[in-house]
Structures are given as structure tokens and as C-alpha cells.
Amino acid sequence: MAPGTEPLKITASAVYPVSGPAIVNGAVLIGEDGRIAAVGPAAEVPQPEGTATINIPDAALIPGLVNVHTHLELTTLRGQIEEDDFFEWIRHVRVAKQELPSRDFQQAAEQGVRDAWRWGVTTVADTGDSGAVVDALTELGGRGVVYHEVFGPHPADADATLARLEHAVRELIDRAADSVRVGVSPHAPYSVSRLLYRKTVEFADANDLPVAVHIAESHAEVALVTRGEGPFADAWAQRDIPPIETARSPISFLDELGVLGSGLLAIHAVQTGPEDAELLAERECAVALCPESNLRHGHGFPPVELLSDAGVSMGIGTDSVASVGSLDLFREMRHVRGRSGLDAEKIVRLATLDGARTLHMAGEIGSLEPGKWADLCVVWMPPDALASQQHLAKRIIETTGDHILRTYVAGRCVHEADPRH
Prior knowledge:
By secondary structure, this protein is α/β, with parallel strands linked by helices.
């Protein structure tokens, strides 16, 4: 990632570091290396010789948002898949992907990275199987974790599928910039055999690769895993795939296979009860919450308070724009605020520092602290927002697209709002 070309001091009505109290009339000093050199009241933050300055009134500086689950290679499918029924929606997404030429995936991924920046998102955790997002983030200077998806419900195909996965992952690692980490994602219980799960996790463990899994998302998935019934089971039977070996729940299904562990990002986890929440916490797994997508497809709302009380690390994701239409993480925050008892400060943490923790990146991003990357978002903020830290957090959650003024990645401005709007 190319660092900023010169030191930069940005001052604003407020700085909201997340890791500490809000600072009225604050500033952030960005060094030549693209990292934060100082944070504090504007009068106390130094301005070394040769430092450029930007003053943005009626605005707050916040950490760049961390979108812990999306599919940027599907950006071109925005608004194309109309079904809400989850089984039918997945089937049509699969067909649509098969019809797309490879260049479309690359263009979609690049547009997705730019769209993320427009929404104040500076780090993405992406899943896909085209490899396009690794290239897009590398070429554009973005930051993220890209989990390469693997599919294969028939156990007879596990060895050949794993060989293709290993080859693809090694190629992607060779192509990825330092700001892009490559992981693996055995997709979901309805698309991956028990044998392929085991082999994929063994490969990940041997190569220190992060793992993400779609799990406990839909009622149809629960029917398959716990009873061997439902539309996914019927689809398996039509393809002569051996019936699934059932388990108590999707979370326990993964635990039986040795998939649960401190490197795992469990995506969705909507169908999670108290026993499963405790199991996720015990295994030190993290959860990616995707409220808008879950509500659209009739899965219900993620058990945010249950997971929080159990001590499970959580972040917020948008899922794909094929599902939810945009990469608006502020909208996802508003969903959590409206449907849980979490306070506004905690919800902002979920989209920033807690999200960074789910990706094991909290030492580098997620809060405005000296030494961390200067990944930040500048949002419009009215004067009355400064009344208290809690009030400021509430106003941050209420941010809309028109209020996102600038986005910086490693001190480089990657998005600036049109001043005419």
C-alpha cells in the first residue's frame, strides 16, 4: 500500500477515536508512512514543518469502518436477483455467476472497492471464488481479508476440489499486496461435504490461513443439518449426493469437524441458541452480523445480545449488494440499534474496533491511535452532536451517504464527496 506522500494534519469539530473519549475541536496527524502520528485537541497536535493542513468544520473524524462480510465480485448483480426466498435466491445467484465472463468479476470487484470507500469502509472481509477482489484491492491500494470460497457437497470430489483450492490460494497469495490477506472459506453445510470441511481446515491450519464459514443462516440450513430434510436435502438427492450426517445444530456440526477455532469467522449465525453461543465463545470464534440480508431473506435477526452476553467477538457486515443493494454499513448499525439493547457507543465499536478484532487486525486498524494505519472517515456532524459522547455516537450511526465527506486509507484520500451535493 502506498503511504501518503506528505504529512497531513486534519482538524474537525470532533475526533471520535473509539478507543478513548471523543475530542471536541480535535485533530489527527498523519505521518509520511501513512500511519497516525498523533491524536488530540487541535491546539496540542503538532504540525511539523512541511505538514499539509485540512480543516473540516461541522464534521467528525472517525475510524474507517470495517465491513466484516461482503462479496464484492457480485457488485454487478445489484438488483438483478429479485427472489427473497433464500433457496431460490442462491440458485439464481449461482446461475448468474456462471454466465458472467471473468472480466465482469474484475470490473465488479473494482467498483465494489470504490463503493466501499464511498460508504466510509476502509477494510473489507470478502468471500468469493473468482480471485478478482484480491486483484482489485491490490491494484487500487485497498485493505482487506479475502476468503477464497470452496464448494463441493459430494465427498468423492473432496481431494480434487482441495487440490484446486490449494493451487488457487497460493496464486492469490503471490499476487496480493501486503495490505491484503488471503484466507479460505468452505462455503456452508449445504454446499460442502464433511470430508471437504476437514481437509480445508487442515490446509488452513498448516498454512496459517484465516477461515470464514457461512453458518446457521437459514431455516432451510437447519432443516438439512439437524433432520436431513428441506430444499437443500431434496437438491442433494436429485444430484445423487449421499445424505448428510446430521448434528444437533449447524454450530455443533462445525464443532464435530474441528472447524470452530480462534481463526474462524462465523458468518451470520442467526440460528444460534444459548448452547451454541457458549460454544462459539469457548472456541474463540468471531461472528459477522449481517442484519439487512438476514431480514430480507426471512432468516430473522441475529441474536446480538445473546452473543454479546456470551462474550463472542462480533463485527458488522453488509453481505453482497446482490442481496442488500448497497454497502451502507451505517444502515446495518441502525438495524442493530433498533433491534437490540446495545448502546450507540458499542454499536459504533462493532463497525470499527470490534470488527477489526474479528479479523485479528485490531493492532493495525479500527481506532484512531498513534502507530495505527491512518484509515479514517470524515462525516458531517451538526454542532448539537457534541453534547456528549453518547449523543455523538448516536449521530454517527444516523450518518447517510450524503454525509460521508472523505475516506482515507493509509493517509491517502480515496473518496471525497462532490461539494455540489
